[in-house]
Amino acid sequence: MKHKITEREIKAIANGQADIKDLFPDVFKVKFEVGKVYKTKYGNLFFYKGSTDNGLSLLTYGFDRGSFTNSTKFNIIDAKEATQKEWEEALIKEAERRGYEEGIYFKSIIGDNNFLIKGSCLKYGWNNQDCLHEINSLGLIFRDGVWATIIPTLTKQQAEEKLKEFGFECKIV
User: Fold this and answer.
1) Distance of CA 44 to the CA centre of its chain
2) Which of 69, 67, 46, 73 minimizes the C-alpha distance to 130?
3) Which domain holds residue 38?
4) Which of 41, 54, 154, 161 makes a 20 to 30 Å CA pair with 17?
5) pLDDT at 58
């Protein structure tokens, strides 16, 4: 595609009085692709799922100022494609913040199976599926913007103490 620029515009750019992006915004506009992750100039990350029928709203989920959200309202000014590593690190950090750690049971997003996290074995899968799973069990912790449910887990000692609080003196074997 060809673009015309005047001598005055060239001088304004050279003197720092104009920005080439302001003169030719269509050249720098990001064309979002479904299934890709983008990073904004503000450091937000979002996974692009498409746009609404009217094209005015993006269908996304991601990290707004570090907090995970299923919001479709991301400031996409100067967004650029993010790396898989940036997205994976953000998801793993969020999983850890939510409490997915060794010894935790969770109900997988798919099926009725419960899984135990053994060690710090969270793995990200990218192949057209945006998902995070526990590597030893393949139980899905995160997929397409949805997080698995953590199952509250007690040790025998914790269970005995809880029962004692309610007046039941017992020993679990």
Assistant:
1) 10
2) 46
3) 7-81
4) 41
5) 66
